[in-house]
Amino acid sequence: MQEGDLEIQVKTFFGLENILAEEIKKLGGKNVEIKNRAVNCVGDLGFLYKLNYSLRTALKILVPVLTFKAFNENKFYDKLFKFPWDDYLDPDQTFAIDATVYSERYTHSQFMTFKMKDAIVDYFVMKYRKRPSVDTKTPDIKFHLHIDRELVTVSLDSSGDPLFKRGYRREQTKAPINEVLAAGMLQLAGWDGKGNFLDPMCGSGTLLIEAGMVAMDLPAQIFRRDFGFMKWKNYDAALFTKIKDFRVSRVKAFEGKILGYDIDEIALESAGVNIKAAEMEDIIVVKKKNFFDSKKEIFPLLIVFNPPYDERLTISDDAFYKKIGDTFKNHYPNTLAWLISADLEAVKKIGLRPSRKIKLFNGKLECRFLQYEMYDGSKKTHKQKA
């Protein structure tokens, strides 16, 4: 590593690691390494700012500051107590600890969080006769504790609030899709902002807005005002402003159409509020329309959607998914469509063989992200014409 470079770990959802790695490489990341639900890379402070501001499929961005092995709780406390916490935290600042523990030796993550908190507070009391306070909701400094068997890693959370909190969601429906998952689905589906886009069951509009952000090359966090790194001792406000200005200067006009349908008026109202908050009324149109009564209106067209399924919303699954397949076949020729579902039996009723299947998680629900290719005529005829 060059002097001034940081080890950086970017967290994401299962199944989006390769997409995230490509995003990081495009932004100039070095030593990019794919892990489980994470991607590691190397970069300087400005690159860390750029990642936080730009990445669409990142949940949080961590900078490891301490790694050690501890075979018991006393060793764990001692190592933490000796660490120079005042390099990162002032006695009058607040802090919080987010913990992930995979260990037979340490089975209770909350207990280990308390031990770490005690070590930090005791360090400041001994050195300054003052103690920083814990604030779990709006801390100045957020630490991440990761324990894998005996290996302990303490990181600074540079993001603060999770990066799926884009700042445009003002309203939501019963089963909203996470913004990071939506962005990942769009990238997996190949949406690059060229052509036209339809979400035929758009709910509160997350997929539509994320599609619009890609189409205009808007930075993922253009609406966010606060990041964790802004409270760090080495925060360079001028550098961050320069990075933001450069990214915003690349925003472009979108010539296509982004269209959303839904039959629920409350959902459409929510979508309208969120689209307005994202300042995309000019490029996103939502209509009260039943997808099953619709026909292809715009060419070329990419469809991506999150239909109701399983525990999230109650529907008559078999009949519902059969209607999806019938609508695809009868009304959307020469169209590429993707949908995500946790109901792996019901999707068989679509009656079309998916050309791709990708395992993803929507919350705790294991899902499949399925691609369907509709042709005007049979697939065999289409290939012969090609």
UniProtKB/TrEMBL annotation:
Q: Where are the transmembrane segments?
A: none
GO MF annotation: an example:
rRNA (guanine-N2-)-methyltransferase activity
Name it.
Class I SAM-dependent RNA methyltransferase
Name the domain of life this protein comes from: Bacteria
Extract the PROSITE patterns matched here.
N6_MTASE (PS00092), THUMP (PS51165), UPF0020 (PS01261)
Pfam families for the chain: RlmL_1st, THUMP, UPF0020
Q: Which residues form the THUMP domain?
A: 47-158
* SMART domains in alphabetical order: THUMP (SM00981)
Which InterPro entries does the record cross-reference, listed alphabetically? Answer: DNA_methylase_N6_adenine_CS, RlmKL-like_Mtase, RlmKL-like_Mtase_CS, RlmL_1st, SAM-dependent_MTases_sf, THUMP_dom
| Keywords on record | Methyltransferase, RNA-binding, Transferase
Q: Which CDD domains match?
A: THUMP_AdoMetMT
Keyword Lyase (UniProt): no
Q: Which PANTHER family match?
A: RIBOSOMAL RNA LARGE SUBUNIT METHYLTRANSFERASE K/L, RIBOSOMAL RNA LARGE SUBUNIT METHYLTRANSFERASE K_L
